[in-house]
Design brief:
The structure holds two protein chains of two kinds. In chain A, a hairpin with an 8-residue loop joins strand 10 and strand 11 (about 245-260). In chain A, the strands form three sheets. A six-stranded mixed sheet of chain A has the order 5-6-7-3-8-9, with helices on both faces. Chain A has a three-stranded antiparallel sheet with strand order 2-1-4, covered by helices on one side. Chain A has two domains: about 5-205, P-loop containing nucleotide triphosphate hydrolases (Rossmann fold, 3-Layer(aba) Sandwich), CATH 3.40.50; about 220-290, Alpha-Beta Plaits (2-Layer Sandwich), CATH 3.30.70. Chain A is built from ten helices and twelve strands. Chain A has helices at about 45-50, 75, 95-105, 110-120, 135-145, 165-180, 190-200, 215-220, 260-270, 285-290; strands at about 5-15, 20-30, 35, 60-65, 80-85, 150-155, 185-190, 200-205, 210-215, 225-235, 245-260, 275-280. Chain B has helices at about 5-35, 45-75, 95-125, 130-150, 155-170, 195-215, 240, 255-265, 270-290, 300-320, 335-340, 345-375, 385-400, 400-430, 435-460, 465-495, 505-525, 540-545, 550-569, and strands spanning about 180, 185-190, 325-330, 330-335. In chain B, the strands form two sheets. Chain B has a two-stranded antiparallel ribbon with strand order 1-2. A two-stranded antiparallel ribbon of chain B has the order 3-4. In chain B, helix 2 runs antiparallel to helix 3 and helix 16 (about 465-495) crosses helix 19. Chain B is globular and about 70 Å long. The chains are: A alpha/beta, B mainly alpha. The interface of A and B includes residues 82 and 109 of A.
């Protein structure tokens, strides 16, 4: 199998006049956790559906383990564990039946692991799925997605329906274990603190375009937040070197900027300003700044080799 | 919109007009197509009855689509009860909430009957029409079922309400008893007071519905007994209703696991219960008719066959409706992502689903036939005669020889399963509300409508242009003849391109199709059949009969193509 688990090249998709995906490039390699972030309707789920072969690429290409998921759904899907956003599992089955049914498709199914997780979540295998609460349903769906120890785990909004404890401890443990075993995890979320906590790599999608695609480390090191006080009132937003977004009024302004800090500091001095506070920007601040920019925004340099 | 009533009326009409338009154009087109294929010398009474049937069927279509659409827009989970639940929070009185949509539906059904009825009468029949009695009938048939559906969310109370209404109906208290003048739509009632009696009971129904809706608005049930609401909006599984013994899911192979799953969803239990339900419904209807109309000679062999066949079609529909995995969830048709991401290829999935489901329809048929055979004497007057007729038929068959009988049985089986598969596939696209299919159907209907209008403009009355009708029918039959191979080729190419079928799979399908075609031609040109079909049969008709041997292949390819579209968009 190729070292690149997912290769999406120049993928576009429209629904009527709405461009859900616009020339999207996305790659994922082994042993890493990828976070897909974006506002509702940004195109995250559409991208995931293309990866699963649930949508045919009208323009561009999608390769999972080097294969087209539409041409060879059987070959691709048996290596994937998928947790859908609406936890879509057959509710007429019992939990045990679902485990047996899912296990039949995957030679790598680990019944011991499934039983262990069922015990952790205190789920009764004889219970009908239709009788479960939303949270329990999410837990069952998660177990059936991961118990065959998939080479690629795709989680669409995994936190939805999970309580705080499960979300923070168990989901983290599951995701980390899978990536440490050399497998790949792609998950979409609008909870940016969760993405920050779990991901090695972040891809931001806005209006169907990838606006940021980089390792979390690089984002943390290259994006900064600065609070600035100027000597004189600024009637318009001050023009500062490498600023991504500038907000405020009068003498007090907040800036998200990226790249080297020296030219930025020089530009403040030129406008007779001083930095009140400076720190690395949070992922949320980076997300808001990228999402707020007009469509002309472009992805920053991506990490080589990812 | 200046008032809440206007806003309510607008929302009802807005959701209804596309269906109304489709219904009018569709009804006129179907009647025109029937008139093309009928002999012009046919008894005009029969023509009028056909038109009656088409108009009533299309009205039922309109009624069900509009109502279900409104329910999805309103309360997605409740199948019974007042559907406009999202409007409960609007600052309007309950009376307005009830009466405005009611009046809109009444107006809608009047348009739905009179517009196509008058067009057809003008183009084809030229019969006399009495407007008021028909309008009154349509009004009653609209308002009564609506009130009986809306007044309660309680399933048992609703059934009780329908039964009481049935008794009133049988006694002529809900609908006046009309006498129909021959070859016309002129209806006469003996006493005009029967209108007043009907209206009185309708008013009572509206009053009950008003109090029922008022209770529902405050989250209560008018009658608090029984099982509460029936979730008719969602597709239900037999296993959700009763604890049936089932074998454990096999884990040895993916295909065996998938077959197990399909058997749980569409397998032998569904066939058994479906068949028994079909028989029960047949006998119940017969018993009700005998109870309320003791003099009726309805439980005759031919009537029982028609009734049982109708029930069997209903059973088959319920079995095949989810063949492609389309289910209603929260009132919306969709295919579960879990089904779509099953790690099997599309051809395997389709083959497993089709085999299990179509097998179940045959089992259900067998269950119905055997049950009627054994329990028929208790419900059917001339059952002995019916048995004798069947035995006589079997005797005639046995005289034909084993090869001939086998050929016929195989062909009938192929024809039946092909028809069912095509029906299931079209039903699926209908459920998914495919825009392209809707536009296609609308364009075809509009085309037929325009041809009908054009011909009637040329000849005044279509009955006077039989020669032209025959040539129009035959020239259009050629379209169907060329459509079969063309669509097979186009869809096969798409399936090959998308990797749904391999070159080897295509060869296998082609060989099987040729085999069926050889059987079809053997039957068609067999010594006893071609003569029956007459040697002066038209080239178009003969070509169509020859080409129908490829219909099983078309059904198979169409099913695969549909599965591929559903799975991969």
């Amino acid at each position: 199998m190729s070292e690149l688990v997912v290769e999406v090249n120049n993928l576009s998709r429209s629904f009527g006049k709405t461009k859900a995906l616009d020339c999207v490039d996305f790659q994922a390699s082994r042993g890493k956790v990828y976070g897909l972030v974006g506002a509702n309707g940004a195109g995250k789920t559409t991208l995931i559906k293309h990866m699963l072969g649930l949508m045919r690429a009208k323009s561009g290409t999608v390769r999972i383990f080097g294969e087209d998921p539409v041409q060879n759904p059987q070959g691709v899907l048996k290596h994937i564990g998928y947790l859908s956003e609406d936890r879509d599992i057959p509710d007429w089955m019992s939990i045990d039946e679902l485990m047996r049914y899912t296990g039949a498709y995957h030679s790598s199914w680990d019944q011991g692991y499934a039983d262990e997780l069922l015990e952790t979540f205190t789920l009764d295998p004889n219970k009908k799925i239709s009788s479960l609460s939303r949270g329990m349903r999410a837990q069952v769906a998660l177990i059936s997605a991961i118990s065959h120890r998939p080479d690629l785990l795709i989680l669409d909004e995994p936190s939805s329906g999970l309580d705080a404890v499960v979300r923070k401890d168990i989901l983290n443990a599951v995701v980390r274990t899978i990536s440490e075993e050399g497998r790949t995890v792609i998950f979409s979320s609008h909870l940016l603190d969760e993405v920050e906590r779990l991901s090695d790599h972040v891809t931001m999608i806005h209006n169907g375009r990838v606006t940021l695609d980089s390792s979390l480390e690089l984002i943390n090191n290259s994006y900064h937040y600065s609070s600035i006080r100027f000597e004189n009132t600024q009637t318009t937003a001050p023009e500062l070197t490498d600023a991504v977004i500038v907000s405020g009024d009068g003498r007090f302004w907040s800036v998200i900027h990226h790249g080297s800090v020296e030219p930025f500091h020089d530009s403040i001095e030129n406008l007779r300003g001083e930095i009140v506070e400076s720190r690395n920007a949070t992922l949320e601040e980076v997300f808001v700044s990228r999402a707020s920019r007009r469509n002309g925004s472009h992805p920053i340099a991506t990490e080589v080799g990812k | 919109m200046k008032s809440p009533s206007q806003a309510l009326a607008w929302s009802t009409i807005y959701l209804s007009w596309p269906v109304l338009l489709t219904q009018i154009v569709g009804a006129v087109s179907i009647i025109f197509l029937i008139s093309l294929s009928l002999d012009p010398e046919i008894d005009s009474t029969e023509s009028i009855h056909i038109v009656d049937f088409v108009l009533i069927a299309s009205l039922v279509f309109l009624y069900s689509v509009v109502l279900s659409k409104k329910q999805r827009a309103g309360n997605a989970t409740a199948g019974l009860g007042f559907p406009y639940t999202t409007e409960f929070s609007l600052p309007v009185s309950t009376l307005t909430l009830l009466v405005v949509p009611l009046l809109c539906f009444c107006a809608l059904t009047q348009v739905a009957i009179f517009v196509p009825g008058l067009i057809v009468n003008l183009l084809v029949l030229d019969a006399e029409v009495s407007v008021f009695p028909i309008s009154f009938l349509v009004f009653q048939y609209t308002i009564i079922p609506l009130m009986l559906t809306w007044w309660t969310q309680n399933g048992l109370a609703s059934i009780a309400g329908w039964l009481i209404a049935l008794i009133l109906y049988m006694n002529g208290l809900l609908i006046p008893e009309f006498t129909r003048m021959e070859n016309s739509w002129v209806l006469v009632t003996e006493s005009s007071s029967s209108y007043i009696v009907s209206l009185f009971f309708t008013a009572v129904l509206i009053l009950i519905a008003y109090f029922g809706v008022k209770q529902q608005r405050s989250g209560e049930l008018l009658l608090n007994f029984g099982n509460g609401r029936a979730m008719l909006g969602d597709t239900q599984h037999l296993r959700s209703w009763m604890p049936l013994p089932t074998p454990a899911c096999p884990t040895s192979s993916a295909i065996r696991a998938e077959i197990w799953k399909e058997r749980q969803l569409h397998g032998e239990y569904n066939a058994l219960f479906g068949g028994l339900a079909g028989v029960a419904a047949t006998f119940t209807i017969l018993s009700i008719i005998q109870f309320f109309v003791p003099g009726a000679n309805i439980p005759k062999f031919s009537n029982v066959v028609v009734l049982a066949m109708g029930m069997y079609v209903a059973v088959c529909t319920s079995l095949i409706v989810t063949l492609f995995g389309v289910r209603y969830k929260n009132g919306v048709a969709n295919v579960s992502v879990h089904d779509k991401t099953t790690p099997l290829n599309t051809a395997q999935l389709t083959l497993i689903r089709t085999s299990v489901t179509l097998g179940s329809t045959l089992i259900a048929g067998l269950v119905m036939a055997v049950s009627i055979w054994f329990f028929g004497p208790y419900f059917i007057n001339d059952f002995a005669e019916m048995r004798a007729l069947i035995l006589e038929f079997l005797q005639t068959l046995s005289e034909l020889g084993i090869a001939s009988v086998t050929l016929r049985v195989v062909l009938i089986l192929f024809a039946f399963l092909t028809g069912l598969l095509l029906y299931a596939t079209f039903l699926t696209w209908f459920m998914l509300q495919s825009k392209k299919m809707s536009i296609g159907l609308l364009l075809i209907s509009a085309y037929i409508f325009l041809v009908a209008t054009g011909l009637s403009a040329l000849f005044g009355n279509l009955k006077d242009s039989y020669v032209l009708q025959a040539s129009v029918f035959q020239s259009h039959l050629w379209i169907v003849i060329f459509f079969i191979p063309t669509s097979i080729i186009i869809m096969s190419r798409s399936l090959l391109k998308n990797g749904v079928i391999s070159a080897k799979g295509t060869m296998l399908l082609a060989v099987m199709a040729l085999l069926v075609q050889v059987l079809n031609l053997t039957w068609l040109f067999g010594a006893n059949n071609y003569d029956v079909l007459q040697l002066d049969i038209s080239a178009a008709h003969l070509s169509y009969l020859s080409m129908q041997g490829f219909l099983p292949l078309l059904a198979a390819i169409f099913a695969l193509w549909t599965s591929d579209r559903i799975r991969h968009g």
